[in-house]
Amino acid sequence: QVQLLESGGGSVQAGGSLRLSCATSGYTRSHYCMAWFRQAPGKEREGVALLDSDGDVEYADSVMGRFTISQGTDKNTIYLEMNSLKPEDTAMYYCAVAMKCWGLRERAFGYWGQGTQVTVTS
Length: 122
Hints:
The chain has 122 residues and is mainly β.
């Protein structure tokens, strides 16, 4: 059974930083795509960043240059380093796993965590 558990969310002032973590278990395939999505109140869930088993990454334009996705040495944990946070980054952040990367498309991901809340105050 694949399980994903996010942590690291919180409240921060604009310009600040947060680091999100997602611990995964039960996914044993050598090829994978891990990603972060977010959903703000009243808005659709949107892709933020992804990383595949080859080390390739992709970012949404809105976070390019501010957010960094990475993987732990055990490859069971992914991180999202968020810098220069803005109030519009406020959202519930979810990690997700797929067998293959098809871009930041929500429907491509079959496994999801419960989310961690990020609030950025001005």
